[in-house]
Specification:
homodimer; 317 residues; alpha+beta; 60s Ribosomal Protein L30, Chain: A; Phosphoribosyl-aminoimidazole Synthetase, Chain A, domain 2; 2 domains; 4-stranded mixed β-sheet; 13 strands; globular
């Protein structure tokens, strides 16, 4: 099967490639065409996943399709954008029909759950990797940025952290555990749910936001730097799942949350008087610290004493 | 040097990352933000270049940066879009400062010549490959599509074809030639000039268009299929450069043009009465055939006799 036929067969025919809101022209020409309503701007983000670096070479194709799109869509959530479309650049060592069918099915499943339409891309031969570019709409001036955190704001997260990092020994087949724990952690690794609705709800509320992909510490460092403030995190307030605590123990679970990455939950800063109403709609939102004058990220132990942050965040080089 | 520092140092600091028309927010947040004037749509295209498949592993980094962006920008030309911005997903086996500096310089040079602003991307570790996503603006309803060719239209190209394919033995170091011929052919391989101004001039004139990346035959096949017509090409009218004819001989030169790809010139269809004025402004535009009822691509030899097309177009799989 030729390259063009491949693309047509597995991707152009996918339901997620059948257009959507604002998609004027999809796969099949030199460019896709997107329309944008008056008063809105386009949010754009590009992410690459490389086999052997971001996921095991022999990963299940369905799960990989799901995860790749979730990881990218999470950047739209972080900006408070309404999801619109995506392109897929897929590099493959060989063209296995089974692999492509499963991958397309996983992609389709996440595309549907995120309301994202596949509008174009490229298929090339080479070592397995995927680059997704996602597009979303956001009203002018309403995008959530990393740079608006104010001294006195609360530091919040969109839910339990560390599960995906904790799942790594399971992903790599290095450890076993009960089916319940395994299922819970692996689901958070393979099908993270981008917090798109929460991101949109935070428009006009959160003073700064991002999605946690490099690990809580590294990502809070990004907010602190962009906002020129310090962020203080109370270790005891970081929400951890029962599955992760049972699997890794309390201390390791906390390290997974601080440095592990791959959570794809939102972290954001908020004026204290906005918390009660937000938590009424989003009970999974938790306060984990606050914004102070200064710079960098500070950690407090359960007794409120400053402690040295562990080295955290994944560095590719 | 960490991943974040790398990106900041070589890309965020590049002049092409300092914003531009319609770039509301560039590198440094979870998404870039683009604005679109009322009455315009966004054209989007994604292309991947893989080392060892689309360019030699040991390619000069400056030339690679230049070529990668040119290849992508050419898709904007093909739609008649006004260039706006691009994202770069760069996968590298290791982080060499010299390589990155040269690559960024090459990218910058083409970005400037195409008026494209770097607005975001991703840097990952892995086998060398590049995925660029380009953005352009086009007035509603004015994008050049592959699907509008009408029986009776002329088939035109934006200039001489085959040079880049002919340059391959020079790129791979398999042949030598005079400095003049070598320079002429290698320039067309490493720094193709996307025909952005011609593309914009064709808005409202050309009935169908694309950029020649897979080879004239394969790409004309795309127009024929999308427009549900036949395209007839007169072999003797395909414009070939003096350098290519001297290097490869007349017959090989023609095969390079028909099947070689990598030209990044526009091919388009046009009502005959529009030709004279177009050629007054764009003397490099050449008529190479016409649009007939039917399907597929037909070739005529110098005597006007139908001949069998050679197998053409690059297939990745």
């Amino acid at each position: 099967m030729g390259e063009f036929e491949l693309i047509r067969h597995y991707f152009a025919a996918a339901p997620c490639a059948q257009g959507g809101d604002g998609v004027v022209r999809s796969i099949g020409d030199d460019c896709a065409l997107l329309a944008l309503p008056a008063g809105e701007q386009l949010a754009v983000s590009t992410d690459t996943l490389v086999a052997g670096v971001h996921f095991p070479e022999a990963s299940d194709a369905f799960l990989l399709g799901q995860r790749a799109l979730a990881v990218s869509a999470s950047d739209l959530a972080a900006m408070g954008a309404t999801p619109q479309a995506f392109t897929l650049a897929l590099t493959l060592p060989s063209a296995s029909e089974t692999w492509l069918a499963e991958f397309a099915r996983g992609l389709q499943s996440m595309a549907q759950s995120c309301s994202l339409a596949l509008v174009g891309g490229d298929t090339t031969r080479g070592p397995l990797s995927l680059t997704l570019t996602v597009f979303g709409r956001v009203p002018v001036g309403k995008a959530l940025l990393r740079s608006g955190a104010q001294v006195g704001d609360l530091l919040c997260v969109g839910g339990e952290l560390g599960d995906a990092a904790g799942a790594l020994p399971l992903v790599l087949g290095q450890r076993e555990t009960t089916p319940e724990i395994s299922a819970a952690l692996l689901a958070r690794y393979w099908s993270p749910q981008p917090q798109l609705a929460l991101g949109q709800a935070l428009r006009g509320r959160a003073s700064a936001a991002l999605d946690i992909s490099d690990g809580l510490l590294a990502d809070c460092g990004h907010i602190a730097r962009a906002s020129q403030v310090a962020l203080q995190i109370e270790l005891a307030r970081i929400p951890l799942s029962a599955a992760l605590r049972a699997f890794a123990g309390e201390e390791q679970a906390r390290l997974c949350a601080l440095g592990g990455g791959d959570d794809y939950r939102l972290a954001f800063t908020l004026q204290p008087d906005l918390l009660a109403q937000l938590q009424a709609d989003w009970p999974e939102v938790r306060v984990i610290g606050r914004v102070l004058a200064g710079s960098g990220v500070q950690l407090l132990d359960a007794a409120g004493q400053p402690i040295e942050p562990p080295r955290g965040g994944y560095q590719h080089f």
